[in-house]
Amino acid sequence: MAAAEVSELPPLEELTNPDGIVALPPAQNSMLPLGNNVLTATLTVGLLVPFILSLVMSKAKRKPKVRAVECDVGGEPGLAKRNQRFLRLVETPWEGADTLAALFEQCCHRYADKKFLGTRQLIKKEFESSGDGRSFEKLTLGKYVWITYSQALTRVENFASGLVALGHKKGERVAMFAETRAEWLLGAEACFRQNFQVVTVYASLGLDALAHCLNETEAVTVICDDKQLKKLISMSDQFETVKRVVYMDAIGDDSPPSLSDVSNWTVESFSSVEKKGQESKIPADMPKPKDVAVIMYTSGSTGMPKGVMMSHGNLVATVAGVSTVIPALSSNDCYLAYLPLAHVLELAAELTMIGTGASIGYGSPHTLIDTSNKIKKGTKGDAPELGPTLMTAVPAILDKVRDGVLKKVDGAGGAVKTLFDIAYKRRVMAIEGNWFGAWGAEKVLWDTLVFKKIRALFGGSVRGMLSGGAPLSPDTQRFINVCFGAPIGQGYGLTETCAGATFSEWDDTSVGRVGPPVPHCYVKLVNWEEGNYKTTDDPPRGEIVIGGPSVTLGYFKNQEKTDQDFKVDERDTRWFYTGDIGQFHEDGCVEIIDRKKDIVKLQAGEYVSLGKVESVLSGSQYVDNVMIHADPFHSNCVALVVANQAALEAWAKKASVDHSDFGNLCSKPEACKEVLSSLNQVAKNGKLERFEIPTKIKLLSEPWTPESGLVTAAMKLKREAVRKAFADDLKALYS
User: Fold this and answer.
1) How many Å apart are CA 671 and CA 663, to the nearest integer?
2) Rounded to whole angstroms, how far apart are CA atoms 380 and 386?
3) Considering the entire predicted model, what is its pTM?
4) Is residue 269 part of a domain?
5) pLDDT, tens digit, for every residue of 517-542?
6) How far apart are CA 323 and CA 594, in angstroms?
7) How open is the CA angle 41-44-47, to the nearest 5 degrees?
8) Would you say residue 301 lies in a domain?
9) Cα–Cα distance between 229 and 258 in angstroms, integer?
10) Could you read off the pLDDT of 202-224 as tens digits, one per residue?
């Protein structure tokens, strides 16, 4: 294929979720165009030479590395394991760092002159019109502007003093209601310094849920960004205890909204509160490890969100444990922060970065890469500009990356597609076969010729990634691992356990598992008789119960639910019953295989795990989201499928099916037949049972978003909400 042919490939606008999270770099940054002679030479070097070398290398299967070992613990009988590298659970990263406030202050002194928090300059904001009359905000962004650890400590001291000067008293709670940015973290650290409890609220949370969170916690002060300030003003009469609001200064020249309707509030900008504190210094009121640091509201997959009470000791234990499992984690690392800080995954990640003096550069899902939906053409995305070494991601983003790369490759065709397919297959064979080609000359060859440009998507320097928040499909995990040339492991944890309970180790090349226990907690399997999961099975199976210093204090103002899910054993170890079903592998790693709440018994007596089936079916190129529905009065499953517009329209074009209107395309029988065929294939590859595979589907053209109330802010399915919204469609599928 000639270079001109590659440059004429269409851009990948389709590589976006409903908010336009990710897309490939422009076509000129695609894989190297290759002529036939070059391709022939490449294949000779890339295949024959490594193949001959691989024959010489020993292929003796090595004994699996032991990653977790059985241990003696208290509480309900079961099979418990701990990380094999530590004889006892870790609780603090070092002596004296036993609260978030102490950890932060000590790190700010230790890494005083090291750059800490980075925010991009906003050069210009404008709106562009599309062909259908809609307008889209586009941003021209500049370089990252940094503050050091020492400067951050000064700002935190000033803001903490400023809150006291405003009248916020000990025992009153502060709510954080903002998108992820540097001031979110600075504001939270200021609260920790004065032992103020922080209530975290998702910026995308519905208004009813927002009022519930603020009223239930009796929040007195709210720290928000300028966008959320407008929401607060619009419903100010619904908040029972709010007295003051501090809004983060707008990035750019935006002015705050009118405050005339909230005369009963004290409203101040973030910078003005810092100034008040600078003029009136207040001594720190440092917390104790058992004091509540955060009341984090879960995103509420069922009903109203629940507030989880996290102590300083809980969160510090997570920092201590996670710090030990990221190889060579140091102040030389740079972390890209763009996920919601109101989610425990992002909060734990940023706190861990602080503990090692790493730099944190802030971004947004809408400006993540060069072709994100809010990036002005010609402007670098956050990741290419920052060049992070570490990232976290959720499966929804990684699935989009995979789908976009594959679409780009398929669109290129010819030599580019042939080379990519060969390179990908060879890398998978090398990694899974654990032979010479995994790390030798062949890897360098494929990385240089094929994968280098793909890695530029996230800046080209990422050395490790963590996926969390939801199950990551094995196909996507392997794809990202190969194309980005860096370990991508799954972590498993919950808000109730301060995130990380297990964490895939970087030398573990398996997929579909979530790793061994992190050194700050135990993982125990207990029998679940109803589902016939027992620790005496081979391999051992059961409900996952997590114990240790990161297990939180329980649910805010919900003692009944706390008593149901949390237990304290005779050794004073606190345990959380997750409701997830797991199994231990021979090396001690955990695999999530089921969910108690997602089990449905069909008419013929078979049990269907809805979450497991959905995880497998999401591997279809046609699926953006899927919900399996199983009715106990029937012997089969059905499914609601949010269709991937790019993939379905591409099929329709090849099949000569009218695709001028996507909604109409989704209603066509031939489209449903094609998608159902794809689902059957991925189900077969995923080794699903016949009764687990949907026999009928409903294709949907509109995405499920947090704003629609059908998924949580963390993009988890709100099953009951979806069932209610599509009750008639589900009924029709069974008719």
Assistant:
1) 11
2) 9
3) 0.82
4) yes
5) 999 999 999 999 888 899 999 999 99
6) 29
7) 140
8) no
9) 10
10) 888 878 889 999 999 999 999 99
